[in-house]
From TrEMBL:
<keyword id="KW-0560">Oxidoreductase</keyword>
<dbReference type="GO" id="GO:0005737">
    <property type="term" value="C:cytoplasm"/>
</dbReference>
<keyword id="KW-0285">Flavoprotein</keyword>
<protein>
    <submittedName>
        <fullName>FAD-dependent oxidoreductase</fullName>
    </submittedName>
</protein>
<dbReference type="InterPro" id="IPR028202">
    <property type="entry name" value="Reductase_C"/>
</dbReference>
<dbReference type="Pfam" id="PF14759">
    <property type="entry name" value="Reductase_C"/>
</dbReference>
<dbReference type="InterPro" id="IPR050446">
    <property type="entry name" value="FAD-oxidoreductase/Apoptosis"/>
</dbReference>
<keyword id="KW-0274">FAD</keyword>
<dbReference type="Pfam" id="PF07992">
    <property type="entry name" value="Pyr_redox_2"/>
</dbReference>
<feature type="domain" description="Reductase C-terminal">
    <location>
        <begin position="344"/>
        <end position="415"/>
    </location>
</feature>
<dbReference type="InterPro" id="IPR036188">
    <property type="entry name" value="FAD/NAD-bd_sf"/>
</dbReference>
<feature type="domain" description="FAD/NAD(P)-binding">
    <location>
        <begin position="15"/>
        <end position="321"/>
    </location>
</feature>
<dbReference type="GO" id="GO:0016651">
    <property type="term" value="F:oxidoreductase activity, acting on NAD(P)H"/>
</dbReference>
<dbReference type="InterPro" id="IPR016156">
    <property type="entry name" value="FAD/NAD-linked_Rdtase_dimer_sf"/>
</dbReference>
<dbReference type="InterPro" id="IPR023753">
    <property type="entry name" value="FAD/NAD-binding_dom"/>
</dbReference>
Length: 464
């Protein structure tokens, strides 16, 4: 039987299973049906809800402008799927080509797409995490619980971590009239994602809006009262603050634990796949029946030295899912690479922050439009002499231009005369990213290196 015959049979009567009832999972399923897949389609999700939109959960939902239950993703078309919701995938048997669920059921597949995404990193001490008043924010239920608490008469909130989600939560709290303390172990908010130069602007913005921002410190303990309610937080500088709510915003963990022992190249940094979304095994050999897309996937990108990128971006989840779906039901010559240019946006403290490219890869920075002091600007990042990224504060109209510059490998520093160039931008500066080996909060693009598996080799010098 030829490869073309196999593909046609798959399209007509194959079994495709999507693990992860997410944005990526839904868009992939819709694309499969759009491209003529008429076989069986099974959607597996650990939450009891059909796919919903996550960005509003830390913005409009916390402010009461949208109910979490109203965040269901719009459907492009009917996907005629068997929905298995409220039950998590527990293991993968590649030899038998089946997924085992937590309730003991097994689901066979001809093609498997993994879109399990991420979950919020929990507070490190389980007993403290269980205190009444300690929250994470990732799911619909998380947002609903936190909104009820914030509007239920509390006065002071502690946000642990000043990445994008933590900063958005702090912004929402201030808009609700609550006193907010933000503890960030890095030198400034957003420093892991945009660097210290831009982070200093985010710091001024938070302080100007009344946030008690404490950088360079960590929360060492959360203290409860006699009935298990949060009452106090202890910081690494020896201080303590009385708080009724603590929102833990320490970044995300990729949902890959269920793949342990499966032989798939999956670990804490995600699932390694090629540019066509095909998953690698632990030996670096590409599979032909397992694909990954969305936050859980990491794949090489030619614009960024073929580094494996793990992207926590809404747009990436959509684009990668569509590429994965296309490739799953195509013969080799018709497959396409996923070459989406990373883009991200955030709204906080009255400012619209957007980025394109991979700022954290940058080794130099210039402010090409506006001025840092005015909190309205476009910062352009360079890497080894070419434009690699741009980030804007209320300057998004320029980002389409810089998207073209990045894709074209335009030289850095920019050779053209920029509009309203100011004195502060005459010479490139170090963007001031923290040491990548030190943890910071909130990078939305992770450079994960070239190794497709999580195996490590210990090098022992001959003279040792």
């Amino acid at each position: 039987m030829s490869a073309d015959t196999d593909v046609q049979a798959l399209r007509r009567q194959g079994r495709i299973v999507v693990v992860g009832a997410s944005l990526a999972g839904l868009r992939a399923a819709e694309t499969l049906r759009d491209k003529g897949f008429t076989g069986s389609l099974t959607m597996i999700g650990d939450e009891p809800y059909e796919p919903y939109d996550r960005p509003p959960l830390s913005k409009q939902a916390l402010l009461g402008r949208a109910r979490p239950e109203d965040t269901a993703l719009p459907r492009r078309r009917d996907i005629d799927a068997d929905w298995r919701l409220g039950v998590a995938a527990e293991s993968l048997d590649r030899a038998a080509k089946q997924v085992r669920l937590a309730n003991g059921d097994t689901v066979p597949y001809d093609r498997l797409l993994i879109t399990t995404g991420t979950r919020a990193r929990p507070w490190f001490h389980p007993e403290e995490a269980a205190l009444d008043g300690v929250f994470g924010l990732r799911t619909r239920d998380d947002s609903a619980r936190l909104h009820r608490k914030l509007t239920g008469g509390v006065s002071r909130v502690l946000v642990i971590g000043a990445g994008f989600t933590g900063s958005e939560v702090a912004s929402a709290c201030r808009e609700l009239g609550l006193e907010v303390t933000v503890a960030e172990r890095g030198p400034a908010p957003l420093v892991g994602a945009l660097g210290g130069v831009v982070g200093a602007v985010a710091e001024r913005l938070q302080r100007a809006h009344g946030v008690d921002l404490r950088c360079g410190v960590s929360v060492t303990a959360l203290e409860g009262d006699d009935v298990g309610r949060l009452k106090r937080a202890h910081l690494s500088d020896g201080s303590a603050i009385d708080v009724e709510v603590a929102v833990v915003s320490l970044g995300a963990l990729r949902n890959t634990e269920w793949l342990a022992g499966s032989g798939v190249a999956a670990g804490p940094r995600g699932i390694a796949c090629d540019a066509g979304c095909r998953v690698f095994d632990v030996n670096g050999i590409v599979t032909d029946d397992i694909y990954a897309a969305g936050d859980v996937a990491r794949s090489p990108h030619p614009l960024f030295d073929y580094q494996f990128l793990a992207l926590e971006h809404w747009g990436n989840a959509v684009e990668q899912a569509e590429i994965a779906a296309h490739n799953m039901i195509c013969a080799g010559p018709d497959r396409r690479p996923h070459l989406w240019l990373p883009m991200f946006w955030s709204s906080q403290f009255g400012v619209n922050i957007k980025s394109v490219g991979v700022p954290s890869l940058g080794d130099q920075l210039v402010v090409a439009q506006g001025a840092l002091a005015e909190e309205r600007f476009v910062a352009v990042y360079g890497y080894r002499g070419r434009v690699i990224a741009a980030a804007s504060f209320d300057g998004a109209k320029w980002l389409g231009f810089y998207e073209q510059q990045i894709a074209a490998g335009a030289p850095f520093p920019p050779e053209y005369r920029t509009v309203d160039r100011r004195t502060e931008t005459l010479h490139p500066v170090d963007p001031a990213f923290p040491d990548p080996h030190l943890p910071t909060h909130g990078a939305t693009v992770t450079l994960t290196g070239h190794s497709p598996s999580e195996r490590r080799v210990a090098f022992v010098p001959a003279h040792a």
